[in-house]
UniProtKB/TrEMBL annotation:
Domain Septin-type G, chain residue ranges per copy: 21-293
Segments forming a coiled coil: none
Pfam families reported for this sequence: Septin
The organism of origin for this protein: Schizosaccharomyces octosporus (strain yFS286) (Fission yeast)
Descriptive protein name: Septin Spn2
Length: 296
């Protein structure tokens, strides 16, 4: 007797549907001005951004972001379409009075949750909800070798309560490999000490493979990265990199920095999980709080 009815094909059914529909992926960058946020985003997605916008203006000198700025790009790989929204935030903690400087950032994230909720409650009007919820927040740490500032801790605390936060050490080409390892270790200890709940989370329903993957990510965090929008020529080859006092840093070389690890994490191994965790964990928490206050 063959009891096979074929519902195991649901995984490919779901995949096909998702692929046809396309994904929305919303990445936010947070950190002090001049910490390399815009440069890193352009480095991460440069090839694709060039396709969708025609070109990336690599000539623009140092530009400061004064308000929250969202740019939207449709990128495609094979038959998979990704709508990528990049959310650039103003540097926090740059003012003399930094009291509540994180509020516009927190408000932006909350506003996306509440507008999603509003649309969800009216969902009979819309076939498919536009998803502007922030799926990943890259938190930029300057390569100082010093402790995180109290303001960094304060911002991290608040962010991690509402969004998937992934810390990166920006401009890590200014650190030697030894300094980098020590700094990473120190940041990890501070994060533990201050009880900051970073992505990824080990929920109860995850299997061994996912547990291992999460452990591997935690070993890499914070990713020590280098960004560059310029190509340089080394031995006749064009590479994306930077020339500094000690020589040339190749952004795409994992012996030089962890840029490739970050990109693989974001785009290859955890893209779907970042989206799903936002929905089932962060958004769900927001939603149940909102709905319970409505009932009162
Ligand atoms: P943002 O204000 O955080 O968006 O910072 P930007 O991306 O505009 O970068 C500020 C300055 O730092 C620019 O002059 C960049 O060329 C430089 N920069 C960006 N990334 C790196 C990096 O990885 N290493 C070094 N050495 N400089 C960088
Ligand atoms: Mg910027």
């Amino acid at each position: 007797l063959n009891n096979y009815v074929g519902f195991d094909s649901i995984t490919s059914q779901i995949n096909r549907k998702l692929v046809r529909r396309g994904f929305q992926f919303n990445v936010m960058v947070v950190g002090p001005s001049g910490s390399g946020k815009s440069t890193l985003v352009n480095t991460l997605f440069s090839a694709h951004l060039m396709n969708s916008k025609g070109r990336v203006d690599i000539q623009t000198p140092y530009r400061q972001t004064t308000e929250i700025n969202v740019t939207s790009h449709v990128v495609q790989e094979n038959r998979v379409q990704l709508q990528l929204n990049l959310i650039d935030t103003p540097g926090y903690g740059d003012q003399i009075n930094n009291d509540k400087c994180w509020e516009p950032i927190i408000k932006y994230i909350r506003d996306q949750h509440s507008s999603y909720l509003r649309r969800e409650l009216n969902s009979h009007r819309e076939k498919r909800l536009q998803d502007t919820r922030v799926h990943c927040c890259l938190f930029f740490i300057r390569p100082t070798g010093h402790s995180l500032r109290p303001i960094d801790i304060a911002v991290l605390k608040r962010l991690t309560e509402i969004v998937n936060v992934v810390p990166v050490i920006a401009k890590s080409d200014s650190l030697t490999l030894e300094e980098r390892a020590a700094f990473k270790q120190q940041i990890r200890e501070e994060i533990t000490k201050h009880d900051i709940n970073l992505y990824p989370y080990d929920s109860d329903d995850i299997d061994d493979e996912e547990l291992n993957l999460n452990a591997a990510v935690r070993n890499l965090i914070p990713f020590a990265v280098v960004g560059s929008e310029k190509e340089i020529v080394v031995d006749g080859k064009h590479i994306r990199g930077r020339q500094n006092r000690w020589g040339i840093v190749n952004v795409d070389d994992e012996n030089h920095c962890e840029f490739i690890y970050l990109r693989n994490f974001l785009m290859r191994t955890h893209l779907q999980d970042l989206i799903e965790t936002t929905s089932v964990y962060h958004y769900e928490r927001f939603r149940s709080k909102q709905l319970s206050t409505l009932k009162e």
